[in-house]
Amino acid sequence: MERSPMVRAIVTDIEGTTSSLSFVKDVLFPYSARHMREFVLTHGPQPPVRRMLDEARELDGGARDDAALVDVLLRWIQEDRKYGPLKALQGLMWEEGYRRGDFQGHVYEDAARRLRDWHARGLRLYVYSSGSVQAQVSLFRHTPFGDLTPLFQGHFDTRIGGKKEAAAYEAIRRELGLPAPDILFLSDVREELDAAATAGLRTACLVRGEGPEVNPGPHPVARSFDELAV
């Protein structure tokens, strides 16, 4: 991949990019499914949780009690819905799991090393994921490589827009206050990269060789962060 001296900021996806697909699908999602009912019944009266439950109830369009709403949330997990209140609840649950030592946040060694290198060189680093900002911060705070959260200047989730919508990347560009070509977006999903490119961002497709075959389309390919010459 050709070196680009124009890159001043990097926005990275998590799942399949900095972190293993299997960690999210085989560890985090099952954990939230196993603990959702207990979490809602235990923490439901707390204002942040109550707000998310009320938003989920509104999305579902029914006046359900919490016990019935848990069944809806579990179905959404099974269907991999990207609904904001579900993601926020999962983020709170996963933070508890990290603190208890039930698991650590998976980050590829090359990603942790290069993120530290880029930060030391003055590049501005950001995360954009369908997981809530809380979930993002928790994952990067509790890794085998230590707390990586100081490396990032900001986090974005689907509150800024869907990851396959060009408008979301334009909104991120405005937040960063940089010309679009100065921003590099990293992902393993062709549709996300297409949307970022439509907004004028530079792109690179991570092909880590796990999960379904990745179709990079016209985007530059890297098999690890070590192949990203920025």
Topology diagram in text:
Blueprint lengths: L8 E4 L8 H23 L3 H14 L5 H13 L5 H17 L8 H12 L3 E5 L4 H9 L12 E3 L9 H11 L6 E5 L2 H9 L3 E5 L14 E2 L8
Helix pairs in contact: 1-3, 1-4, 2-3, 2-4, 4-6, 7-8
In short:
The chain has 230 residues and is an alpha/beta fold. It has 8 helices and 6 strands. The chain has a 6-stranded parallel beta sheet with strand order 3-2-1-4-5-6, with helices on both faces.
Task: Describe what this molecule looks like in 3D.
The chain is built from eight helices and six strands. The chain is of the alpha/beta class. It has a six-stranded parallel beta sheet, with helices on both faces. α6 links the parallel β2 and β3. The chain is globular. The N and C termini lie close together (9 Å). 36% of the residues are buried.
* Main pleated sheet: 6 strands, parallel
The end-to-end distance, rounded to whole angstroms, is: 9 Å
Strand order of the largest sheet: 3-2-1-4-5-6
Class from secondary-structure proportions: alpha/beta
Q: What is the 3D shape?
A: globular
Gyration radius (Cα, Å) is 18 Å
Q: Secondary-structure element order, as H and E?
A: EHHHHHEHEHEHEE
Mean pLDDT figure: 93
Strand content: 5-15%
User: Can you give the helix content as a percent range?
Assistant: 40-55%
Q: How many strands appear in the DSSP assignment? A: 6
Low-confidence stretches: none
Tally of DSSP helical segments: 8
